[in-house]
Amino acid sequence: MVAMKTLTEKILTDTIRLRPANSHKGTFGRVCLVGGNYQFGGAIIMATEASVYSGAGLNTTLTDVVNFGPLHARLPEAMVTEFTNQKALTQLVSAADTVVVGPGLGVESDSLTVLKGVFDAIRPSQTLLIDGSAITMIAENDLPLPTAHLIFTPHQMEWQRLSGIPINNQENEANEKVREELDAIVVLKSHRTRIYTSEGSFMNPTGTPAQATGGMGDTLAGMIGGFTAQFTHRENAVLAAVYAHSDIADNLADHQYVVLPTQIMHQLPTYMHDHQSKR
Ligand SMILES: NC(=O)C1=CN([C@@H]2O[C@H](COP(=O)(O)OP(=O)(O)OC[C@H]3O[C@@H](n4cnc5c(N)ncnc54)[C@H](OP(=O)(O)O)[C@@H]3O)[C@@H](O)[C@H]2O)[C@@H](O)CC1
Ligand SMILES: Nc1ncnc2c1ncn2[C@@H]1O[C@H](COP(=O)(O)OP(=O)(O)O)[C@@H](O)[C@H]1O
Ligand SMILES: [Mg+2]
């Protein structure tokens, strides 16, 4: 077992590239976000908004129709389609660089149908981020995983459900073994989030209890979606998103008791400007 490395600010300039002058929206990636049932619309709205604010060129959200108006009122930049429309889902998933599935998806039978539809449509060259309800449904239904570049973003209870490792025993060696079986990147979220990849394991030193509020993980999922769609080194894109998400929160927590997920994403354009590669 190789020692866990601690992330530093360097991961930002290693990852966030200077935007090429000769570019257009297609240069910066397509993200398809799937989630948000009638109850949890906020989760997919936050994930989508985080992806847009992190600079992904084109963002399409597949969600329950009740979320169309609320999402568009906040974010006219995103496109929307009903997640029960299997034909549209297959088309939009196929066209994406990164697909984010799970924020607010729920665990009812319609949610499971949507998740299976995503798994059927995804191709091996694509990045698939699996979060929230999608992780819970995989664990509860023992679903086979599709072939793709998989990223899981569980909190500790979701990781217990997926890996079978109880929260108190989630040590590096056990976590790395399950990561290898899943053949995925695993972002195990907690006060000090750990990231397991085939290129090593990393501890994120940023983060504050001011972040302990609903929607914080949905926001991270959207950021990782946006980063992986535009930055070519997948592992670094994940690491940089995790670092930035909590570093922005730390900065806000210097003078705030609680930090809202939407405040973090709204800082992203400035933060990324200040931490981009100089070349
Ligand atoms: N605005 C919206 O639309 C929002 C929608 N959301 C969406 O809701 C869906 C369900 O996701 P979920 O995370 O809320 O519920 P679930 O998977 O049952 O986990 C909670 C259970 O795990 C336990 N637990 C133990 N350790 C833990 C840890 N480190 N971190 C967290 N939990 C921990 C915890 O223990 P307790 O808090 O009781 O001590 C509790 O028993 C999902 O799709 C998500 O995207 C939310 O994002 C909120 C905003
Ligand atoms: N006490 C804490 N210190 C640092 N980070 C925290 C703390 N509590 C929560 N977080 C962060 O907030 C996020 C919570 O994710 P998650 O539980 O999936 O939230 P949600 O599903 O409500 O969006 C993770 O990124 C986690 O690291
Ligand atoms: Mg979550």
TrEMBL record:
AMP binds at K189, S190, H191, R192, T193, G217. Its EC number is 4.2.1.136. Belongs to the NnrD/CARKD family. GO terms for biological process: metabolite repair; nicotinamide nucleotide metabolic process. CDD domains: YXKO-related (cd01171). It is an enzyme of class 4 (lyase). This is ADP-dependent (S)-NAD(P)H-hydrate dehydratase. InterPro entries: Carbohydrate_kinase_pred_CS, CARKD, Ribokinase-like. Its cofactor is Mg(2+). Catalyzes the dehydration of the S-form of NAD(P)HX at the expense of ADP, which is converted to AMP. Together with NAD(P)HX epimerase, which catalyzes the epimerization of the S- and R-forms, the enzyme allows the repair of both epimers of NAD(P)HX, a damaged form of NAD(P)H that is a result of enzymatic or heat-dependent hydration. Pfam families: Carb_kinase. Homotetramer. It comes from Secundilactobacillus kimchicus JCM 15530. It catalyses: (6S)-NADHX + ADP = AMP + phosphate + NADH + H(+); (6S)-NADPHX + ADP = AMP + phosphate + NADPH + H(+). Keywords: ATP-binding, Kinase, Lyase, NAD, NADP, Nucleotide-binding, Transferase. Residues 8-275 form the YjeF C-terminal domain. (6S)-NADPHX binds at A43, G104, H155, D218. GO terms for molecular function: ADP-dependent NAD(P)H-hydrate dehydratase activity; ATP binding; kinase activity; NAD(P)HX epimerase activity.
